Amino acid sequence: MAAFRVDNRIGRTAILLVLNGEECISKEQLRQLKWKSCTGKVGSMESQKVVAAIETAAKKNGIIQPGVYRETHALYHAIIDAVSGVTRGQVQIGSVLRTVGLSFSIIRGNPYESEQEGDWIAVCLYGTIGAPVKGLEHETIGLGINHI
């Protein structure tokens, strides 16, 4: 697969990263933009486990500083927006007998030319959602972007 030219569209980059990984977006390209990123996977019937897995990955990979509330808060809102997309606006999974198997990407950086705009964070989720019976799920995707 040909390398994707990373530009300042943080959401598009998060989507491509979760779908194609480093096959199309290199860590070096993100480093040149002064962006931080990580990817991971989570599967659960509980939305709080999805949130916790993404938050843990962000902290372990230095995307956010654990002791800085505004960073955790911005990440939380980006996660909830992404989960809302995955669940079609109803941030419920197990309580309505659904389960998810998701890959995620997190990107932090300034998507603007002016450094004064500060950092933003994007969370993208891609995978499956459906009844907790193998073979009864379908694809889903969600994206959340928030300023820090």
From TrEMBL:
Cross-referenced InterPro entries: Regulatory_HutP, Regulatory_HutP_bacillales, Regulatory_HutP_sf
Subunit structure: Homohexamer.
Keywords: Activator, Histidine metabolism, RNA-binding, Transcription, Transcription regulation
Organism encoding this protein: Anaerobacillus arseniciselenatis
Keyword Membrane tagged: no
HAMAP family cross-referenced by the UniProt entry: HutP
Assigned protein family: Belongs to the HutP family.
One BP annotation, GO: positive regulation of gene expression
Function: Antiterminator that binds to cis-acting regulatory sequences on the mRNA in the presence of histidine, thereby suppressing transcription termination and activating the hut operon for histidine utilization.
Keyword Transcription regulation attributed: yes
Protein name, per record: Hut operon positive regulatory protein
Segments passing through the bilayer: none
GO molecular function: mRNA binding
